[in-house]
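Note to self: keep these together.
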Amino acid sequence: MRSLERSRTALTRKDRPSVFTMYGREWDLFPEVFAPIYSPATGISMDFLGLSESVEVPRTGSLLEIGCGTGVIAVSAALAGCERVVASDINPAAVLNAAANAARHDVFEQVRTVRGDLFGGLDEGERFDTIFWNSNYVLAPEDYEYGSVHECAYVDPGYAAHRRFLAEAPGWLTPTGSVLLHFSTRGDLVSLLRIAGEAGRRVRTVQSVVVQEGAHQVEHMLLEVTPAQAPARRTAAAR
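Structure:
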């Protein structure tokens, strides 16, 4: 599977840095953590959320980022004005990495990092204006067992994590909040829509962009997830 090979390569490259530059800022990169410099996904997510502008646009409210990795998105959201950001990851090294970058950019009071599988690290009563996940959208066989926690950032066996995300995410929203999912044509959109329907969710494309990744053109999509009976809401990122 090409995605798993990319995972292994990103961990073992001899030129893998301990600090990298993205959007005019320096960021710590810990071993065993997803490296944004080897994939366009983080940059595309920044564009989708309006966080890549050279002039920062102030925002308000709260953000939960699932799969925060190095914390580039979570920290950038805090720097842009989000009062409360929770950065969650299943990888303990990523949790430490995101905390280090929050401290590096002096937003450690706004950004809280937690270790958890999707929503597992949250306090029961927490609610968010925006929930965002740049997901591990490549579908792996249902019986695939991860060789390392780093692979969790690349593939999802049987879309088990996506099924849980679609079912559980709306329950963590404020009354006017939005659930946003970064997906791509490297994933199986037909299967995603099927499990969304089974979970009683509606999925619509908010934004999309086609990029060249090696020999392939890949469409990246920002999807909004709502209960099937509810009208689509204007996303918090676009306010």
